[in-house]
Amino acid sequence: MSMDRRKFLKLLGLAGVGLGIGSDFVQMSPAEASSGHGLPSSGERLGMVIDARNLTDEDFTRMIDACHSIHNVPTLIPEKNDVKNEIKWLWTDTYNHTFPEQINEYHPDSLREKEFPLLCNHCDKPPCVRVCPTQATFRSKNGIVAQDPHRCIGCRFCMAACPYGSRSFNYVDPRLYLTKMNPDFPTRTMGVVEKCTFCVERLAKGLQPACVVESGGALVFGNLADAHSEVRKILSTHFTLRRKPTLGTMPSVFYVIGGEDYAG
Amino acid sequence: MYNGGKIILGLIIFLALAAFPFYSNLGGSAKKAMPSLDTPVIQQLAVKECVKPGEYMKREHMKVLDQWRDEVVREGKREKIQVGGREFEKSLQNGCMACHSNKEQFCTECHSYAGVKPYCWDCHFSREGGQI
Q1: B125: nearest CB among A142, A181, A204
Q2: Do A150 and B122 touch (CB under 8 A)?
Q3: What confidence tens digit (pLDDT) does each residue in A134-176 have?
Q4: Which of A80, A173, A234, B101 has its CA 20 to 30 A from that of B94?
């Protein structure tokens, strides 16, 4: 059979299209697609509601200290003033940085300058999971976006993908900056990424996440798939915001910011 | 043979150098690795039993740890292991090293004898006084 160059190229193009249709490159795997927010009232979908109305700087300090000391998170920023090296699982930022899609120029200064606690949003559609080349970051059945540091190769794709800045890279040996170590939890090593885990190791022991315990009731953690859970009760009775909703990542962390408090 | 004497002399010198590790180690043998089980926790145990028999653990502990790691970190299967009425956490730091707190005499003893450098200790550490 003879074939001229033009016909050969046509066939090649067709074959390429055929392969593309069969590919599931852009589709979520079944494990990722299940246990999303659209779930019926069964199963487990962990999430958090943050009532940010009355949280003070002291509350933030207490929550961050608890989180970072339990998980051996080094304090790198103060002495070096080097933002790049900072490791953060739980941190705070202003309204405009927290909810950049919900800004208007007439917001009162009290809201503009208000600080909000930030952590990994444990998204339903986590972009960090999509880009991880080693599947070190993955989505657990209960909705927690977990990271397996054993598999992390330090490529930092997830940091580029995460729209919330929830991931930190260990540019230096974290142990050099730990004044005290919790012997029940490992440290990380230079060259891996880390982030909030929703305290998965505490949940396994029946404990609440450390920040929730230290928040004095302002943070509520629970099962979003259970219509009778406390988180769902708050969500159904309060107006809540999620961070950067237009990106379609569907965060599992919700913020009660009030509103009426700022009027007048 | 041209320069026969020099060639043979060269060969002898080469063989002497190449075989140096062998004859230098003749006679005295390297110190055998003797991992110590002498820790306060193990001393107090009535029945000194690990999750698997000692011989098995000597050969296969890395596979056990690997399996635990995947089960705990990736699958969330954190149920404890029951052996002879005792419970073991599936964890290097909180399971193994709860008893074997003497990392230097237990882990490093064999690892340095075998010339292996596991990277466990890049992140995990001995529970004894937060020692790295």
Answers
A1: A181
A2: no
A3: 999 999 999 999 999 999 999 999 999 999 999 999 999 999 9
A4: A173
Contact A148 B125 (CB under 8 A): no
Does some domain include residue B92?
yes
Instruction: Give contacts of B124 with chain A, Cβ < 8 Å.
Output: 186
Report which secondary-structure segment, H or E, holds A211.
Answer: helix A210-214
Domain range list for chain A: 41-256
Considering all CA atoms of chain B, what is the largest pairwise distance in Å, rounded to the nearest integer?
A: 80
Contact across the interface for A204 and B76, Cβ inside 8 Å: yes
Query: CA dihedral in degrees (A51, A52, A57, A63; nearest 10)?
Result: 40
The question of ipTM being above 0.85 is answered as no
Residue B94's closest chain A neighbor by CA?
A184
User: For B41-86, what is each residue's pLDDT tens digit?
Assistant: 888 888 888 999 999 999 999 999 999 999 999 999 999 999 888 8
- Phi then psi for residue A217, to 5 deg, are 95, -5
Answer yes or no: do A183 and B93 touch at CB < 8 A: yes
- Is B20 within the bounds of a domain? no
Q: How many domains does chain B have?
A: 1
Task: State the CATH architecture for A41-256.
Answer: 2-Layer Sandwich (3.30)
Q: pLDDT by residue (tens digit) across A33-91?
A: 444 565 544 589 999 999 999 999 999 999 999 999 999 999 876 566 677 889 999 99
Of A76, A39, A20, A73, residue with least CA distance to A186 = A73
Is residue A186 within 8 Å of residue A73, measured between CB atoms? Answer: no
pLDDT at A196: 97
Q: Tell me how far apart the alpha carbons of residues A53 and A218 are, in angstroms, rounded to a whole number.
A: 8
Neighbour tally for A123: CB within 10 Å:
26
B14 class by beta-carbon count within 10 Å (0-12 exposed, 13-18 middle, 19+ buried): exposed
Q: B81: which strand partners? A: B88
B32 has a chain A CB within 8 A of its CB = no
Indicate yes or no: CB of A183 within 8 angstroms of CB of B123.
Answer: no
Strand partners, A146: A138
Asked if residue B1 is part of any domain, the answer here is no
Taking one residue from A and the other from B, the number of pairs with CB-CB distance under 8 angstroms is: 37
